[in-house]
């Protein structure tokens, strides 16, 4: 019927970037795609119409990028992550297309303020914190440095919860980011795959044949793809974020419905939809654990089926898979992919087990993000076997292969064998997903130099002994497009005016800014930009919370997931001690300071939620005490997300990176703050070590125990009570909190929390307190000397370019993926 060849197909003409043409197109989309007259259109209508116009230009680049991969046969990278904290996309796309001025002028001609409508775009609720934001930065950088890539994840309907405060307590509410649709995404019904659960395994084949195993799942759901284009800087490449949505095979059991069982008739539909409804369902119950494992297998299986289908469509053969495909596991959440790849290769495509293992191992890479053994996922063997019976068989087969190799070739001891086994035999038998990801990958990377070194001697010590060439380091990075150019346009303009535009394409070209660090005129301009950003944050806090902030005060900010090892508790205890000192010594020259916190606590993490309540209780007392004379204010800003970070990061004077040494894998908030001209106070943990090396010891405030000192102190026996008794400020602060000074409605609210510091102090809050308090007084002295302060913060901005995610991705591409 249609005899046109691909060569005959018309190629669309390049779309105009003239503001008047863009304005015409926005009106056209408003009229014919949204059905609104410009006279009655609401801001949300203008937002959607503008996105559709931008999206058309993205699609042109997207299709060009896709065609190029097929024509060149380039290796594709597939990034599997349970989180992608992408934030708002409109400004990101417009900026990377180089159309910010044109779109702004087009909207202005129509009487629309781009800042107003951009602020209406919901944050995609696809992540929790650093892990998901890193994945988002990596996706943008892969497009920027021209690495053909797909990101694979789950299209959560609600994602992580929306955080509200009720009398200072965290309350979790559904995040309804998809309530009004998502104009960036494209549903791909043709890219749908069946995903199975449960059932049993049958053996096919006689005595003379090699037995073949066939999994017969008892349940099946459909995974359907939704694609979002990811634009690189200057639109060099547009890659794809493919998210999976779950749908039932039979949406409604009609017989049950007609029989009057209206709820039961929708049982299968509700069960399928629960897979993609919420990020990180609470796993404190067996049902929660099962749902989490179902989610992980659901997106892993759909992604691998899609990867193999695309590869076979181009090459007709899977033997060259590792030459044309690189799959990166972002933490242990997609580790079940190792067994699913083996099942697909052996059971579906007929490969011998050993050949399939070679292909699998050479295709996968694994990024580890934690040194906490409890954070390396593991699943009860009965649950895993019931839900994924064939995969359990494959795990036993892989385990036998690894343990035999370790015993015979390396003469491993029984203790070492137990350590590397995929099955944890201590107590209830569990499948170790970290070990599975390790043995199933040719590359295992840490995310900072310290973290990588510690991996080799802690959580993966014996696996490293077995495979000494696999562990390598790839220090994390952040995209400077979002975390400087977009979130801090004032500083970007100042830097361009001062040293030119080279840094826009290579963040390491910020280094010439160093020569202006002590230039008084430049310092004044730098300080003016910082103050404007602080005014913006002050306005946000005033509008959301009714709290007035003084932008002339030091903005001391800690924003990250609430966890005991990140030590928001250390920060707020020192704040209480400072409060006591200000009241006790009013004659001293105290520097005005605003302590700002933001972050979410996991719903089942009692102590983390209690720390949020403590921060709010302390804030209520301090903010209403006239004796502090405006010298100290405490604010917990609810519902931390990417958009809030984009306001808070540029406004920070002091960046709190105070995790217990040896427990933070890397951190990326530290990089964002430093790039935007904040001074870091922190421990030698994660990427803080490399930050110190890059910005210089004089331009960062380091305090506290080092990782080896923490380990030694824990091993030798730490006596926190004796430490507390030697520190008057700490003892008084702990006593005030424990006795109910900040919780008069419940004087015992914090008794157990404080007793944990006295009894074991696992996170070294007491051990590091005096060093932390002393470092904060050093910060006060610096703040009192503006020229010295701004010299250091300008040095931070100038020397943070190495922490660009472009550098990180180039290292992954060259040293792990061999792509691009």
From TrEMBL:
<comment type="similarity">
    <text>Belongs to the glycogen phosphorylase family.</text>
</comment>
<keyword id="KW-0963">Cytoplasm</keyword>
<protein>
    <recommendedName>
        <fullName>Alpha-1,4 glucan phosphorylase</fullName>
        <ecNumber>2.4.1.1</ecNumber>
    </recommendedName>
</protein>
<dbReference type="InterPro" id="IPR035090">
    <property type="entry name" value="Pyridoxal_P_attach_site"/>
</dbReference>
<comment type="function">
    <text>Phosphorylase is an important allosteric enzyme in carbohydrate metabolism. Enzymes from different sources differ in their regulatory mechanisms and in their natural substrates. However, all known phosphorylases share catalytic and structural properties.</text>
</comment>
<dbReference type="Pfam" id="PF00343">
    <property type="entry name" value="Phosphorylase"/>
</dbReference>
<comment type="function">
    <text>Allosteric enzyme that catalyzes the rate-limiting step in glycogen catabolism, the phosphorolytic cleavage of glycogen to produce glucose-1-phosphate, and plays a central role in maintaining cellular and organismal glucose homeostasis.</text>
</comment>
<dbReference type="InterPro" id="IPR011833">
    <property type="entry name" value="Glycg_phsphrylas"/>
</dbReference>
<feature type="modified residue" description="N6-(pyridoxal phosphate)lysine">
    <location>
        <position position="672"/>
    </location>
</feature>
<keyword id="KW-0808">Transferase</keyword>
<dbReference type="InterPro" id="IPR000811">
    <property type="entry name" value="Glyco_trans_35"/>
</dbReference>
<dbReference type="GO" id="GO:0005980">
    <property type="term" value="P:glycogen catabolic process"/>
</dbReference>
<keyword id="KW-0663">Pyridoxal phosphate</keyword>
<keyword id="KW-0328">Glycosyltransferase</keyword>
<dbReference type="GO" id="GO:0008184">
    <property type="term" value="F:glycogen phosphorylase activity"/>
</dbReference>
<keyword id="KW-0119">Carbohydrate metabolism</keyword>
<dbReference type="GO" id="GO:0030170">
    <property type="term" value="F:pyridoxal phosphate binding"/>
</dbReference>
<dbReference type="GO" id="GO:0005737">
    <property type="term" value="C:cytoplasm"/>
</dbReference>
<keyword id="KW-0021">Allosteric enzyme</keyword>
């Amino acid at each position: 019927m249609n005899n046109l060849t691909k060569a005959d197909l018309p190629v669309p003409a390049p779309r105009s970037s003239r503001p008047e043409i863009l304005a015409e197109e926005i009106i056209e989309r408003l009229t014919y795609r949204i059905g609104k007259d410009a006279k009655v259109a609401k801001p949300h209508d203008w937002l959607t119409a503008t996105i559709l116009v931008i999206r058309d230009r993205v699609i042109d680049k997207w299709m060009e990028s896709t065609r190029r991969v097929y024509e060149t046969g380039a290796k594709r990278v597939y990034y599997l992550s349970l989180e992608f904290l992408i934030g708002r996309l409109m400004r990101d796309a417009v900026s990377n297309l180089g159309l910010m001025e044109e779109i702004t002028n087009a909207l202005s001609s129509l009487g629309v303020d781009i800042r107003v409508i951009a602020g209406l775009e919901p944050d995609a609720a696809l992540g929790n914190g650093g892990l998901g934001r890193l994945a988002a930065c990596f996706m943008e950088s892969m497009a920027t440095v021209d690495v053909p890539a797909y990101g694979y994840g789950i299209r959560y309907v609600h994602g992580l919860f929306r955080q509200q405060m009720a009398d200072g307590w965290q309350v979790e509410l559904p995040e309804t980011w998809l309530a009004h649709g998502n104009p960036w995404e494209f549903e791909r019904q043709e890219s749908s795959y069946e995903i199975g659960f449960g059932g049993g395994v049958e053996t096919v084949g006689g005595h003379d044949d090699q037995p073949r195993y066939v999994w017969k799942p008892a349940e099946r759901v459909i995974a359907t793809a939704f694609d979002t284009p990811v634009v690189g800087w200057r639109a060099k490449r547009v890659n794809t974020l493919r998210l999976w949505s779950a749908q039932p095979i039979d949406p409604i059991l009609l017989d049950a419905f007609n029989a009057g069982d209206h709820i039961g008739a929708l049982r299968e539909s509700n069960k399928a939809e629960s897979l993609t409804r919420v990020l990180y369902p609470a796993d404190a119950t067996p049902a929660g654990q099962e749902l989490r494992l179902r989610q992980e297998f659901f997106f892993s299986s759909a992604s691998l089926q899609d990867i193999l289908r695309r590869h076979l469509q181009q090459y007709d053969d899977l033997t060259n898979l590792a030459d044309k495909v690189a799959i990166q596991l972002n933490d242990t959440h997609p580790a079940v992919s190792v067994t699913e790849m083996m099942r697909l290769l052996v059971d579906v495509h007929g490969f011998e087990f050993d050949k399939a293992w070679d292909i699998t191992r050479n295709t996968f890479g694994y990024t580890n993000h934690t040194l906490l053994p409890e954070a390396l996922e593991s699943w009860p063997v009965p649950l895993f076997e019931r839900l994924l019976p064939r995969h359990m068989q494959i795990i036993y087969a892989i385990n036998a292969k690894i343990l035999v190799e370790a015993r015979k070739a390396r003469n491993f001891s029984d203790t070492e064998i137990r350590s590397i086994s995929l099955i944890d035999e201590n107590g209830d038998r569990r499948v170790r997903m970290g070990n599975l990801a390790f043995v199933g990958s040719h590359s295992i990377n840490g995310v900072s130099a310290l973290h990588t070194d510690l991996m080799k001697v802690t959580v993966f010590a014996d696996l490293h002994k077995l495979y000494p060439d696999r562990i390598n380091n790839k220090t994390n990075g952040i995209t400077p497009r979002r975390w400087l150019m977009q979130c801090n346009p004032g500083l970007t303009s100042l830097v361009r005016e001062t040293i030119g535009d080279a840094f826009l394409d290579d963040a390491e070209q910020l280094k010439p800014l160093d020569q202006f660090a002590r230039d008084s005129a430049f310092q004044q301009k730098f300080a003016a930009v910082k103050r404007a950003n602080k005014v913006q944050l002050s306005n946000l806090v005033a509008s959301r919370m009714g709290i007035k902030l003084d932008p002339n005060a030091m903005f001391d900010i800690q924003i990250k997931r609430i966890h005991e090892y990140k030590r928001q508790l250390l920060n707020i205890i020192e704040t209480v001690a400072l409060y006591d000192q200000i009241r006790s010594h009013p004659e001293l020259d105290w520097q005005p300071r605003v302590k700002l916190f933001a972050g979410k606590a996991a719903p089942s993490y009692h102590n983390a939620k209690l720390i949020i309540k403590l921060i709010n209780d302390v804030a209520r007392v301090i903010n209403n005490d006239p004796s502090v004379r405006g010298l100290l204010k405490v604010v917990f800003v609810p519902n931390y997300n990417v958009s809030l970070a984009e306001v808070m990061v540029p406004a920070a004077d002091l960046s709190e990176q105070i995790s217990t040494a040896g427990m933070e894998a890397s951190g990326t908030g530290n990089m964002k703050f430093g790039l935007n001209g904040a001074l870091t106070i922190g421990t030698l943990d994660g990427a803080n070590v490399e930050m110190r090396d890059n910005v210089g010891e004089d331009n960062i405030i380091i305090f506290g125990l080092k990782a080896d000192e923490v380990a030694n102190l824990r091993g030798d026996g730490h006596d926190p009570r004796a430490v507390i008794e030697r520190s008057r400020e700490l003892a008084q602060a702990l006593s005030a909190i424990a006795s109910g000074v900040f919780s008069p409605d419940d004087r015992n609210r914090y008794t157990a929390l404080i007793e944990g510091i006295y009894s074991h102090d696992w996170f070294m809050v007491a051990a590091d307190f005096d060093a932390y308090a002393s470092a904060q007084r050093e910060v006060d002295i610096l703040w009192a000397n503006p020229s010295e302060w701004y010299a250091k913060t300008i040095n931070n901005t100038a020397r943070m370019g190495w922490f660009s995610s472009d550098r990180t991705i180039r290292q992954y591409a060259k040293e792990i993926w061999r792509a691009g």
